[in-house]
Amino acid sequence: DVAYSLIGIFKSDIRPHYGEGDAALGHLLEEIVARSGEVTVLAWTGKSSPYNSCLPVTLAVYSRPPGVSPAIEDAEMAVRVAALRDLLSQTDAILTYGRVTRLPPAIFANRRLHLPCVIFVVKRLCVQNLGGGREYRYRARVSGIGDVEFQTSDQLSPTEPRKLVFVHPWVRDLYDPLDGFDWENTDSEDEDEDKSDPETDAVSAPSSPLLHGVPAASMDGYTRALRMVARLQQPLHALLLQQQINREFKRVAAEHEIVVPGIDPKINFAKDIRTEVVEIL
Length: 281
Description:
Radius of gyration: 20 Å
Order of helices and strands: HHHHEEEEEEEHEEEEHE
Helix content: 10-25%
């Protein structure tokens, strides 16, 4: 009944199917993602729904949403971009930018979520029982990030760490409206974005005459890409996914917030930064 009462608020077209129980909430949240491509409904900690592992079993989890990384202020962004110029080549920066910008919006249908995200593979996993036997503390060595610690009652196998991936699904947060990116026109983006000439690839941002000290009309592709990399350096609330038999994934360790450090700018960007649309059950 609670889920159905929200149909009008979200202007949803779903029809109530009385008797579907907990699936009603999953049905509603699936419709929200399907209509908008918006994935903020995935920002929760608690018990996963049998409808889909990336959805919660109750709306109560949204009363305590995970923390979000603060926006980078203008002065700080200028400092970070300047530092990144000494560490990151144009090729790697624009390659990363191109991979992220080519990700399509999320698709949710038939209880299957097709989630675009930045992926970080777990290379090694160590486990420690916390005494009571109900939860375990894990330490994961993660490509592109480093060490990540988390706690869960899920029993994860240290012998198969590469079946686990941390994902950054908050792709929209990596864009800044001032960067000239139009989410609605993602499909029309140049397929060869990462091959563009960083010296001539300018963006327009009519809403502001200056972008962190760079005139909007002349901001080159290299600067634009470095701004995105600076956002990727921010700590974030990540989802942990476990690969299933048929290469789909399920969310695991959802009880507690998992905060991972941002990427290390000294990594091998071509190898350690992956973008993909993963199918989640």
